[in-house]
Amino acid sequence: KTLGDVKVGESSTIVKLHGEGALAVTLWTWLIKGTSFKVVKVAPLGDPVEINVRGYELSIRKEEAAVVEVQ
């Protein structure tokens, strides 16, 4: 299951990040293994997804959400 599969209002926990390069470095700043988050809202066309993680609202694209494995 990926971050993109989590519905609005649901919470989940980061399991693993599958990205490489600059994308992975940027995401690892916020999405550390074991960190809980909640999906706050999704844009009308599904991109971007806004999550609340560690007290911050973070918007990420579909392609970024697809590389974040959650439980």
Structure commentary:
The chain is an alpha+beta fold. The protein contains two helices and five strands. The protein has helices spanning 21-30, 62-65; strands at residues 11-17, 36-42, 49-53, 56-60, 68-70. Strands 4-3-2-1-5 form a five-stranded antiparallel β-sheet. Strand 2 and strand 3 form a beta hairpin. It starts with 10 loop residues before the first strand and ends with a strand.
Please provide a brief summary of the model.
This protein is of the alpha+beta class and 71 residues long. The chain contains two helices and five strands.
Architecture blueprint of SSEs:
Elements: E1 11-17, H1 21-30, E2 36-42, E3 49-53, E4 56-60, H2 62-65, E5 68-70
Antiparallel strand pairs: 1-2, 1-5, 2-3, 3-4
Q: What's the quaternary structure here? A: single chain
- Distance between the ends: 7 Å
The total count of strands amounts to 5
Average pLDDT rating: 87
Series of H and E elements: EHEEEHE
User: In DSSP terms, counting alpha (H) and pi (I) runs of 4 or more, how many helices?
Assistant: 2
Q: What is the 3D form?
A: globular
**Strand order, biggest sheet?**
4-3-2-1-5
User: Share of helix among residues?
Assistant: 10-25%
Main attributes of the structure:
71 residues, alpha+beta, globular
